[in-house]
Amino acid sequence: MVVEADESDGSFSKLNPTAAIITNIDLEHLDYHKNEDNLENAFYNFVSSIPFYGFVCLCIDNPRTQRLISKLENKKVITYGMSANADIRATNIYYKNNKMNFSLNIKNNKEFRRKCL
User: Fold this and answer.
1) Backbone φ and ψ of 104, nearest 5°
2) Coil, strand or helix at 24
3) pLDDT tens digits for 8-51?
4) In terms of residue numbers, what domain contains 113?
5) Structure pTM?
């Protein structure tokens, strides 16, 4: 099952994912989380529940997800983004003929050419 989880009320912590993709951790919903540390801890607790055979995929371009990555031990972590440190990286990005074009580079692998319509 694929779910778009929302951290606005903390209910995403009730999920038991095998895998998670986190695009960013923005300073939102502080009315519920109260402060940045609580928000980041909520995400940490969420990904900590992923079993040993699962994985978490995080955008390395976001500073808060970078901090989360540094805290994760014994988890399979896959990073993506435009940073040279990303496991999966978009490069050669350009817009032409109403299409976004880019190369997809996978660390320790060859470059793949992709078009996003």
Assistant:
1) -110, 120
2) coil
3) 777 778 888 999 999 988 777 777 777 888 888 988 999 999 99
4) 87-117
5) 0.81
